[in-house]
Amino acid sequence: MTRTKKNLSGQEMGSKGFLTREKIVNATADLLVSRPLRNIKVADIGQSAGISASTFYLYFETVGDSALAAIERVEQSSPKVVKLLKQSWTRATLLQNCKKLVHIYFSIWDEHHALLRVRNFVADEGDRRFYDARRRSLEPIHHALQKKMSELQGDLPEKLRLDPPSTASVILAMLERTAQIIRLPSAHKATRPRITETTAFLVASALSGGKSFVERRPGTPKVHVTD
User: Fold this and answer.
1) How much is the pTM?
2) pLDDT tens digit string along 119-133?
3) Are 36 and 28 in contact (CB under 8 A)?
4) Does domain 79-208 have CATH number 1.10.357?
5) Which CATH class is domain 15-71?
């Protein structure tokens, strides 16, 4: 993302200005860990950052703007995710790679859960800025999933192939929601390892177009995802 060079008064920001803006963004991010966005006031941010309200308004018009600045620093399409998806996958390694993908994805959520939760909630309420921030953050993964799907389903008859853009959107929606609920206590004795394993299986099934990818163990019946 392009670094902001001027404050809201149109003044070029020097090192002190950048530092002050960064303090505001960091204070907002810290407050979002324990409070909903709607409950955070400029005075709260000022107290946490050690600045006055008038100083806050030199850099941001609203608390939502400073929250958005904090959210846009989160690199959800991390180099680890993109690198993994760019590697060569086969059906034999598909499930193992999907487990790695899910693990990395959930780890990003663990680290930035407060900011990502707020981003998705406000985006779902209709704020276009937060919606666009989510789209930009996920777009590299979305494109990489589409490419991976085309590779893995290339030998399927065309009528049996899943639509890459639609399927990638569904996969990401599942990952986003599961990454949130996996952090909550389960009413049904679901465990994090089992949820992760199931999520990886579903991602693998979608990427492969439902074609068999489960490796058989000696002495066990053959397993097919579809007939």
Assistant:
1) 0.85
2) 999 999 999 999 999
3) no
4) yes
5) mainly alpha
The CA distance from 168 to 144, in Å, is 9
Tokens of 23: 């303090």
In the structure, what pLDDT confidence band is assigned to residue 2 with cuts at 50, 70 and 90? low
How far apart are the C-alpha atoms of 82 and 55, rounded to whole Å? 39
CA–CA separation, 99 vs 95, rounded Å? 6
Each residue's pLDDT tens digit, 161-206? 999 999 999 999 999 999 999 988 888 889 999 999 999 999 999 9
- The residue whose two tokens read 């008064």 is 9
Domain chopping of the chain, boundaries: 15-71, 79-208
Q: Is 47 helix (H, G, I), strand (E, B) or coil?
A: helix
How many residues belong to the chain? Answer: 227
| Chain mean pLDDT for the chain | 90
Tokens standing for residue 111: 């680290």
d(CA 187, CA 122): 27
Closest among 125, 137, 135 to 36, alpha carbons compared: 125
Residue 8 near residue 60, CB atoms below 8 Å: yes
